[in-house]
Amino acid sequence: MILRRRRAAGLLAVLVLMTGACGQPDRRPSATPGPSTPGRAAAGGADHLVRVPVQVQVPAGLTAAPYDVPRHLNLPAGWSASVYVRAAKPRFMAPTPAGDLLLSQPSRGTVLLIRKGADGTGQASEFLTGLNRPHDIVFADVAGRIWVFVAEADRVVRYPYGTGDRPGPGEVVADGLPDTSTAELRGQYAHVLKNIAVRDGRLYVSIASTCNVCVSDTRSDPQRGAIYTYDAAGRNADRRLFARGLRNAEGLAFAPDSGDLWAVVNNRDNLPVPDDRDVNGDGRGDLGRRVTTYVDDHPPEPFTRVREGGFYGWPFCNPNPDRGVRNMPYDRDYDLNRDGRAADCATATPIDVGIPAHSAPLGLTFTAGTAAPDLGAVIALHGSWNRSRPTGYKVIHFPWRQGPGEQRDLATGWLDESTGDAWGRPVDVAIDADGTLLVSDDASGAVIRLAPPRPAG
After folding, report:
1. What is the pLDDT of residues 153-189, one digit of tens each?
2. Domain of residue 136, residue span
3. Which of 346, 409, 420, 423 to pair with 439, CA 20 to 30 A apart?
4. Taking the CA of residue 295 as centre, how many other CA atoms within 13 Å lie in the half-sphere pointing to its CB?
5. pLDDT tens digits, residue range 17-47?
6. Residue 67: closest CA among 83, 84, 88, 89
């Protein structure tokens, strides 16, 4: 039985998994699929494109800013939104087999356990403390036992899962991951937080870049801007380089149909024009210049299948979206590969689809087999910091038919497009056992419930 990262389940699922084969896939435990109803089908299909403003419901006691004034999200008709729990700078989440929620707080070194109270709001307690910037959290069955894997900045630790408020003693699976304490980095690491996945007894670890664009990350050991695998049952055992050229791969998840690893990637910033085109319209070529209109839309953020041995361009090659965002050609990076000697961009692994540049995709989850509407792949866009007109700040999805369909908005409204101001920044998306989507928001300090319509009757 497959155990998936973004899905909730009851205790019965745990018992079933414990009797299954060892080394099965991760990603947060799977929920029992809900009944197929016209309302839910419409919510996940083309009809969902008709979105309406919905006021975010805020229970008493959770009304601190920015929820001290009415807030609205644009959702498919019939959906609702409410604040589930408040927590400082929440990041990645994992529904537990018992139907609770784990929530990471890297800034506090803490993983919270969130249980639903009698009033329907989340009640938080400390599950793990004193950690080194914990980020991603994954449940997985390894050798017939359920473990919760927690990615810290410098290591990945697994804990035996029980239904109590605290886990048993942890076991280090991957150690010595680069962080700000790494001597060569001298305290500087732009993307120190780690993301993980587990499948068939293998732990996958995304080691993001330390910089916007630099050669040093490609020469380090381990390489940065890469994904490695480890034995999920060992301490630093059987480390292998799986794929490289992924500047900051977040939201690792396995496609439910093929079992392939997919990731969303935060690509580079401030990209110079790679050729002699006239971007700003002054009649002169702009080769090597950083022109705002070009930087705004280049390069796109990859949403791609991660193939073993793949090279996805960074920092030497950049996907070019000018003729569409699927299977894009690569341009040589002007800063590091203008003569093509550092890397042959024609041989780089194609990216499946690009998300608009600077959207900062973080959390990725698949809805297949859960009680949620059939949305395919759901992605939280954290939002841009360096674009002349902000983009992102929303939750999108790609309908899934043996791969991603066209990008569609699911929830918008965190960004006021008229002013460019945002009151929230989505980070991760998890699926509760009842089919609601939980969205962590590290800017507003909350987890928000996005609830589809209830089935009739």
Report:
1. 999 999 999 877 889 899 999 999 999 999 999 999 9
2. 11-434
3. 420
4. 17
5. 333 333 334 433 333 233 232 233 334 443 4
6. 83
